[in-house]
Design brief:
Order of helices and strands of chain A: HHHHEHEHEHEEHEHEHEHEEHEE
Number of domains of chain A: 3
Number of helices of chain A: 12
Largest sheet of chain A: 6 strands, parallel
Strand order of the largest sheet of chain A: 2-1-3-4-5-11
Oligomer: homodimer
Structural class of chain A: alpha/beta
Radius of gyration of chain A: 25 Å
CATH architecture of the largest domain in chain A: 3-Layer(aba) Sandwich
Distance between the termini of chain A: 66 Å
Shape of chain A: elongated
Number of strands of chain A: 12
Helix content of chain A: 40-55%
CATH class of the largest domain in chain A: Alpha Beta
CATH superfamily of the largest domain in chain A: Response regulator
Chain lengths: 342, 342
DNA sequence: CTGAAAGCGCTTACAG
DNA sequence: CTGAAAGCGCTTACAG
C-alpha cells in the first residue's frame, strides 16, 4: 500500500508540454512566463498535486526557507515547566513564520549546550530565534560567537546598549515603574521583590529598578532585604515567598518578577495565613492567561506577545535577506485586578 | 563581514587526503572504513567545523530527517490560549526527536485547514504528529485521507477501535472512573460535568462515561441535566459553570473535563458565593503545573506526557522506517488535592 | 577498504 | 518568452 511515487517538475513539464525550466519559472513566480503557458503549468501542478521538493530547491538556492526557534531553559530539565508566556510567543512566531513563507524548526536547548552554529552550518535553518530566560552573563559570550560567525539571529530579551545582535524586548523598566506607582498609590511602601535582581537577569533587574524608581520619586525605594531570588516558576515563587516570610521583616506588597512566581507566592502567603490583597498586595508580570483566573485575579503587566512574535520573525527575515534590522523595545501596560485591591 | 563560506565534504576530503566518497562513508558511520582513515577524516571534520549539508543529503537519500508537529486548535485563533498540557507534550516530543536524530518542524493549524499532505509531498517532513483537541468527527475524514495517501502519521487522542492510523492516548475512561469513585467515596452523588460529552470529543466523552460507570456501580449515574459543553479553556470553564448555576439544579461536585475548565469553573463558583471544597468539590483532568497552585489546589488526573511524547515519536519513526506500529493507551492516575476535600 | 562516477530534483545564467 | 545545460553537495552501487 505504498503511496504512488511523488511527481517531479519533469512530470509537470511533460503534462503541460513545456520544458522543466519553464515549470520551475512558473513555480518561482518568474515574470518572464507567458500567461497561457503559466496556466497550463498550473493546471498540471494541480492535477498531479505537485509540490516543489524542498531539498532540491534549497540545495540549489542555498536557502533553507526555514527558521529555527531555540527555546532554552535554565536549570530545569523538566518538560512541563516551560513558562506559558513562551507558549503564546511560540504561537505568534509560528503564525508569523507561516505568513512569511518560512517553516519553523523548534528545539529545546540547555543553556550549556553548544547550540550555536549547528543549524546554520548544516543549512537546516537560515537563522535563529532565541527565546528563554536564563543567566544573561553566562550566555552573552555565545551571542558574541554567533555574531562573529555571521550567524543570523534575533533574541527575545532585554534590549541593552552594548548587546551583540538584534534583540526584541518589552519595556521592563517602564513595566516595573507602573507596578511601583500602582502599589504606591495604594499606600504601599514596603514592597518585596521576588526574582533575581542583578545583571545576570536583565529583564527581571529592569522590572526591579523600574519599581525602585517609582518609590524613589516618592522619597522611598526598594529594600534589598526584601528581595529574594527566584527563577520563573510557581515552585520557585512559592519557595521565595517562604524565604521572605522567614526573614520576619515587615512588607505590605509583593512584586513578583513573573506571573508564575506571583502565583506560587500567593499560595505561600495564603498558607501562612495572610490574605491577598487585604494583608499583602501581589503583582506579577507577563499577563499569562492564568493570571485572570488566579485567586484572587492577579494584577500584572501585559506584554504584546503577538506583536513580539511578529517583530522577531520580521527582523530575522530581514537579516536573512541581508537587510539591516534594529533592536526594538515594546511597550508594557498595567493590568489591574483583585490581587492589589478590591 | 560575511561568514567564510561553508566547508563541503570535498574540502574535508582534500584535507584528510582521501576521496569525497570516503568522507561521506565516515560521516554516515559506514563500517567499511579503516580505523586510521576514519580518524584522519574526523580530525579534518573537527578542524573545519564541517556539518553535512542537510539538503544535499536529503535529496540523495529521499529522507528529510525531520518530523512535523501539527498543533491544531479548534475555534480559537488566539495565540495565547493553547492548553499548557500540550506545552509539556511539546517539550517531551522535541526531546524525543533529538534523541532519535530528527528535527522537529512545528506548525499551528486550524482544524479546517488543508494540512494533510503538504509536509510530506514537499519532502519537508518524513511524517506527522497530530496534536490537539477538536471535533473528532469533523477531522476523522482527514485522517482517512492521510491513510489513503500513505502519509505516515501518529496522533495524540482517544484510542478507538475503528480508527484510521496510529493513536497514542491516555486511558480516559479509567481516569474518569477514578474521579467518579473518589467523589463518590466523599459522599457526592450529584456530579456535574463540564465539557463536551459526545462522540465529537471522544476524550472528554470517555472521561464522562468513566465517571458515570463509577456512579452506576453504586446504583446512581451522571445526570445529563448537569452536563454543560465547554472547550478546554479557563473562559469556557467559567462560562460553563455559570450556565450550570443558572439551571438552579442541586449538585455537590463538579468534574471538569480539563484543568483549565476546572480553574475557570472554580472562579465562577467562588464568585457565586460557593466554597470549594466545602460547598462543592471540584476535580479536573491533565495535571498541568498550575493545578498544584490553584486555590484551592486542584484534584486531577495525571497523564504521563513524557512517556506520551516518547511513544509518539518512537511510533512515527517506526512507521517512517516501514516498520509496524500500534496504537497505545497510557495509564491515568488520580492526584488528590484540596479541591475535593480537606 | 577505497575511488570514480552517476544521479537525487531543482534553479538560473546563457543563448536564442 | 522558452529551452538546453550546468551544478548545488551529497550517497551509494560498482569496480577494483
Amino acid at each position: 500500500m505504498r503511496k504512488k511515487s511523488k511527481a517531479t517538475s519533469i512530470d509537470i513539464a511533460h503534462l503541460a508540454g513545456v520544458s522543466q525550466a519553464t515549470v520551475s519559472r512558473v513555480l518561482r513566480g518568474s515574470p518572464l512566463v507567458n500567461a497561457q503557458t503559466r496556466e497550463r503549468v498550473e493546471a498540471a501542478v494541480r492535477e498531479l498535486n505537485y509540490k516543489v521538493d524542498r531539498h532540491a530547491s534549497s540545495l540549489r538556492t542555498q536557502r533553507a526557507g526555514t527558521l529555527a526557534l531555540l527555546l532554552f531553559e535554565d536549570p530545569t530539565p523538566d518538560d512541563s515547566h516551560i513558562n506559558p508566556f513562551f507558549l503564546s510567543m511560540l504561537g505568534s512566531i509560528t503564525r508569523a513564520c507561516a505568513r512569511h513563507g518560512h517553516d519553523l524548526l523548534v528545539s529545546f536547548q540547555q543553556l550549556s549546550d553548544d547550540w550555536h552554529a549547528d543549524y546554520e552550518d548544516s543549512m537546516k535553518a537560515d537563522g535563529l530565534i532565541l527565546l528563554g530566560y536564563g543567566d544573561y552573563l553566562a550566555y552573552r559570550g555565545k551571542l558574541e560567537t554567533l555574531v562573529e560567525q555571521g550567524t543570523r539571529f534575533v533574541r527575545w530579551g532585554a534590549v541593552l546598549d552594548d548587546q551583540p545582535g538584534v534583540s526584541i524586548g518589552c519595556d521592563n523598566l517602564h513595566g516595573g515603574r507602573l507596578v511601583g506607582e500602582h502599589l504606591a498609590t495604594l499606600g504601599h511602601r514596603r514592597i518585596a521583590f521576588l526574582g533575581d535582581a542583578s545583571s545576570h537577569y536583565p529583564e527581571f533587574y529592569d522590572r526591579y529598578r523600574g519599581c525602585d524608581a517609582a518609590l524613589q520619586a516618592l522619597g522611598g525605594g526598594m529594600d534589598p532585604a526584601l528581595q529574594v531570588d527566584a527563577e520563573s516558576s510557581e515552585e520557585a515563587g512559592f519557595a521565595a515567598a517562604r524565604t521572605l516570610l522567614a526573614r520576619k521583616l515587615p512588607f505590605d506588597a509583593v512584586f513578583a518578577a513573573s506571573d508564575l512566581i506571583a502565583i506560587g507566592a500567593m499560595r505561600a502567603l495564603t498558607d501562612h495565613g495572610l490574605r491577598v490583597p487585604e494583608d499583602v498586595a501581589v503583582a506579577g508580570f507577563d499577563d499569562i492567561p492564568m493570571a485572570r483566573f488566579a485567586q484572587p485575579a492577579l494584577t500584572t503587566v501585559y506584554q504584546d506577545t503577538t506583536r513580539a512574535g511578529e517583530l522577531l520573525v520580521e527582523s530575522l527575515v530581514r537579516l536573512v535577506r541581508g537587510e539591516p534590522a534594529e533592536s526594538t523595545t515594546l511597550p508594557a501596560s498595567l493590568v489591574v485586578r483583585r490581587s492589589t485591591g478590591t
